[in-house]
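Take the subject:
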Amino acid sequence: MNYFSVRTSKFLFIICFLFTVCAAVAQQSHGKIKGKITTSDGKPASEVNIVLKNSKYNISSNEEGNFELSRIRSNSYTMQISLTGYETVEQQIVVADNETTTLNVQLKVSNKELQEVVINNRKSLLSKKTQYVARMPLKNIENPQVYNVIHKELIQEQIVIDPAGAVRNAPGVVPLNYPSGGFAVIFRGFTTGINSRNGMETLSGRSSVGIANVERIEVLKGPSGTLFGSSASSFGGVVNLVTKKPFETSATEISYTAGSFGINRLTVDLNTPLTKDKNVLFRLNAEVNNEKSFLDYGFNKTLSFTPSIIFKASEKLTFSVDAELFKVNNTRPLYPTATVASGITNPGDIQLNYKKSLVHDDVDAKSSSSKAFVQAEYQINDRWKSTTLFSYVSEDLDYSYQVLPTWTSPTTATMRATLFGPISSNYTNIQQNFNGEFSTGILKHKILAGVNYRYYTDTFSSTPTPAAPFRTIDVTTNFNPVRRSEIDKVLLAPVIRAGRDEYTFSGYASYVLSVADRLYAMASLRLDNFDRKESGTVPGYSQNSLSPKLGIVYQIVKDQVSVFGNYMNGFQNLAPVTQPGGEQLILDPLYANQYEGGIKAEMFNKKLSATVSYYKITNDNALIRQADLTYQQDGKQVSKGVEFEFLANPLPGLDITAGYAYNDNRIVKTSEANKAIEGNKAQDAPEDVVNFWASYKFQNVLKGLGIGVGANYVDKSYMATTNTFYIPSYTIYNQTIFYEQSNWRVGLKINNLSNKKYWSSWGAPQPPANFLVNLTFRF
């Protein structure tokens, strides 16, 4: 048995043993309290915070508004029930041994209680409630797919101002800022952008993404093309950004953050009903961010404007409309390459001053994205619902200067560059979903059926410099950084690629069978017809694909511990990639299969949530990045690993978020031309990734004061499958202290406490020790 198998077996045995012991303890019983909570309009109220005073119990209601407290000692108690925007209810109850006390509560809307509930409601950090992962009401413990949820409360607590800091809270996830200006994440050995927004396709390829309007970030693990489509997912999974929605009370939040490197960030969150009957709700989130780089040159300026409206046309029909305008002007990160003769094996070998930039501020880029989303939800009856969605996403790059240094020695770099732009990418999606559920005896059936039409069009142009470097820099001298005028003088004729037109028609269905609320079986299927029209000299083609997904879940302890397994298939029609010289490589479609099994637990009145799983993903036609950053499509790739997530609220005020991921991603087979890389690690695939964050908010003395500490470890990874140039491993430590009241909050965050020098997965140096100060007002 190899090292990986032994390691995995021991790890799974320990976790299984712990789950079994915890489950046995959880099964002991005394008295019970159960009931249902509804809102002022009579609808089920989910995620309601339920506290049994003078006890350890603090739970949340489920999707149907139901709740249950078990193993309660006989006594008289005061139960406190609270939900953002509603009056807090306190109810006296009596619990007796071996008896069940029933309590049904209807909440009343209250603006007065809004802020206090927001401050005290900590349960959402553990919540995995989502309508997007399965596109049907399915609890985490019933779902055979692994996913992570990062809530806005955690993002605020950590004073995170960009998506890179936020996604580090998910197990195995490593952020990546592309030299193109886009943002992506790496997990399970594959890279994907934030390509889904409220379940619909979006993009972050050249203009990145802001987080001022983020309610939560959902990270779905494994090939998820069955429900999301190949254009939104990679074989590692999908990142779905869920935006803030309007609600029924008036509230405003203004937040200002300042810190190292000239950071100045202002955000505004304004929510108000537009009509007295509260049938029209409006919310606006806006963000302005200006910052310098820790390098001697470099900057980043962003602006976002995200309005949204909910219109309740009738008791059954609701419209939701939201839009986003995001503008960026910044300098792009460089990605280095090194010749074999240089002797350089990693960025640490380069003798350039860590805070020195090779390029000036005027070697910059400007881009923007415009997005519009419309949803119409019609409740046909108590069991069936229709959802119609439309989205339009446009990303425009005015220009982007991207510089490629090639290190010929630890002190000498030759410089090449490409001016990209103008580039335009436009997506139109129309989607129709039907959801239904019904019961036949002990069997419960949940059904999703949907169709999707996608139209994509783009334009592309770039202007390269000559193949020979236009300049050599010796970093031991007092050199001048590269200026825009220097690049402009040597630019060649623009390369304009003919625009592309792509059409995708999709149909999909998902069925979940529940047996006695213990055994769940899922079967999903997606059929895609992809049609790309002829583009210049590139011939068009049409292709059909069929992607199945199967899963099974059995609850060992009802609503607390389940075992699961899944088979998932992913399919991708890949867009041409741009080589470093600006030319395009046309790619064949990819297929990948995943097998996964594991255990999920939500125990101790949902104060603990944990998942452990083992997976194996096989890709038979891998895309390989070579040492010179050119791409080839050749080889069989196998990614396998173990993931563990642990979320807990063991004591009032104490929250823990932790995760560990082990991934072994290799090219196991190649053609004769690439035999040298057979058996090598795939690019951008760190082996071990650890995340940890713990915070405590004082409950009595010093109430309102809180502290948080965390760490992230990322193992070394290779920039290419040749495995000759690697990114060193690193550990970064962070700490925050904050003081929070109902209508204001102040916080201090120190990032990279140990002042660690480290590099991104594409070799860009990352900030040394720095601080952020945040002041927030709510009224």
